[in-house]
Amino acid sequence: MRAAIGDTLHIHTNHLGTTEHLGEILEVRGLDGAPPYLVQFRDGTTRLLYPGPDAVVEHPTAAAHPAPVHAPLSPAVPSHSPAVSSPQQVAVSARRIHTRPGW
């Protein structure tokens, strides 16, 4: 399981009478997107957890978060120039993984 800050953790349930849990991932404390995750659930509680087999990480779709529009650097630079970042590069560089020494 891999996650990034801003992804949604969806914990399904297999018990009757219990609800599914949805929460936003605030911190990723493992290496390369691995657990544990600091998650804030919709009811306001925040928990540090290792998701079980009934949990799924849902990544935001491109339609939900439109790519930012960049102005051209100058009229002489064509839009296909490698100097202009692609929307994917911008989205990846905006992700941060919080780490603390000793954790």
UniProtKB/TrEMBL annotation:
<feature type="compositionally biased region" description="Low complexity">
    <location>
        <begin position="66"/>
        <end position="87"/>
    </location>
</feature>
<feature type="domain" description="DUF1918">
    <location>
        <begin position="1"/>
        <end position="57"/>
    </location>
</feature>
<feature type="region of interest" description="Disordered">
    <location>
        <begin position="66"/>
        <end position="103"/>
    </location>
</feature>
<protein>
    <submittedName>
        <fullName>DUF1918 domain-containing protein</fullName>
    </submittedName>
</protein>
<dbReference type="InterPro" id="IPR015035">
    <property type="entry name" value="DUF1918"/>
</dbReference>
<dbReference type="Pfam" id="PF08940">
    <property type="entry name" value="DUF1918"/>
</dbReference>
